Amino acid sequence: MRALTLIADRKLELAEVSSPAPPSADEVQVRIKAVALNHLDLWSYRGMAFAKRKTPVVVGVEAAGEIAGVGSAAADVKAGDRVVMYGAITCGTCRACKEGRDNLCESVAGIMGFHIDGFARDLLNLPARLVIPVPEGVSWRDAACAPIGFATVQHMLFDNAKLAPGESVLVHAGGSGIGTAAILMSKAIGCTVITTVGDDAKAAKARALGADHVINYNTDRFEGVVRKITAKKGVDVVFEHVGAQTFNGSLLCLKRGGRLVTCGSTSGPSTTINLMQLFQQQYRIIGSFGASMRNIRESLAKMAAGLLPVIDTEVPLPDFERGLARLESRQVFGKIVISF
Ligand SMILES: [Zn+2]
Which of 136, 234, 309, 321 has a CA 20 to 30 Å removed from the CA of 315? Predict the structure, then answer.
């Protein structure tokens, strides 16, 4: 079978390796059908000074596949079932895991494709409790975007920011994988969506997705435009993942008592904030990372109901690096999916 391994910073190797042993009692064996790229793949590929990771490591942080083998104690699945996998090997026994909040696991073994071997290989074994069934009618390509792409957004907007119908939301980088998902999920509950993009072609695509207002951040200061659009009131929620470059502007876009939820810092990890502004305006700043098992089921249910991820490109496994280059160049609108 094939496995795509990061052997050093910016160095991938696609090699033939031996297939895994039959799954142990509480495991399943999954045949991978599609892997979706995330910014996390880029952090891993480039190397990241402040996050520990070892090479060699099999890449691929989110995926969909078919059950190819079932351990003797794995009762809920059978061969041929279509599944997605949770993106980290969590313990399953701590309080957070028992409550279904796996992203707060107290003894997580690591994030797949980052700290430990990921999904860019034909077959793998993993604990049966970490697979989630894919509803009928959802394609491999779309399902592969559920565990991280969609579920992260589901967790940010609804569990953390408590976005409610009729509210206003500013979605940063509306052309990114999570940005496109945030626009679609917010519009689906009747919110007013303002989004930022880097060029006019993306602006047209964001409007076509349903964004009510689109700001080209290369030609306009987004905080000024948001204040104008909202008649100086600001928005209820800001969906952040850009980080240093936008964070203070994002706070200026919030309504009094507004919520900023963030899951990333692609433009840099550090910034300073005005504490007087924070408490006087009664802002809530919420960090969000990953998702719960429930969020993945919710994401798949949305897909089954017709809310589908925006796909930028599909590339075959040997072209994984080409997909990463496209992601890194920021030319992407939506998700890049690796087909098997
Ligand atoms: Zn745990």
Answer: 136
* Ligand 1 centroid from CA 242, angstroms: 29
In this prediction, residues 201-215 reach a mean pLDDT of 98
CA of 95 to the centre of ligand 1 (A): 7
Which of 283-297 are b and which e, b meaning 16 or more Cβ less than 10 Å from the residue's Cβ?
Answer: bebbebebbbbbbbb
* pLDDT tens digits along 172-187: 999 999 999 999 999 9
C-alpha 144 – ligand 1 centre gap (Å): 23
Q: What is the DSSP string of 3-24?
A: EEEEEETTEEEEEE-PPPPPP-
How far is ligand 1, taken at its centre, from the CA of residue 118, in Å? 19
**Tokens standing for residue 237:** 């929620």
**Could you tell me if 59 and 120 are in contact, meaning their C-beta atoms sit under 8 angstroms apart?**
yes
CA 92 to ligand 1 center in whole angstroms: 5
CA of 69 to the centre of ligand 1 (A): 25
Compute the distance between CA of residue 37 and CA of residue 216 in angstroms, rounded to an integer.
24
Residues 131-160, mean pLDDT to the nearest whole number: 98
Query: Tokens 């993945």 map to which residue?
Result: 296
Percent of the chain with pLDDT over 90: 94
Over the chain, what is the mean pLDDT?
Answer: 96
Q: What is the largest CA-CA distance in the chain?
A: 62
What pTM was computed for the model?
0.96
**pLDDT score recorded for residue 50:** 62
Q: Kindly tell me the number of DSSP H helices and DSSP E strands found in the chain.
A: 11, 18
How far, in Å, from the CA of 59 to the mean position of ligand 1? 23
3-state secondary structure of 15: strand
Distance 236 CA to ligand 1 centre (A): 33
Q: Which two tokens stand for residue 339?
A: 């087909």
Q: How far is the CA of 89 from the centre of ligand 1 (A)?
A: 9
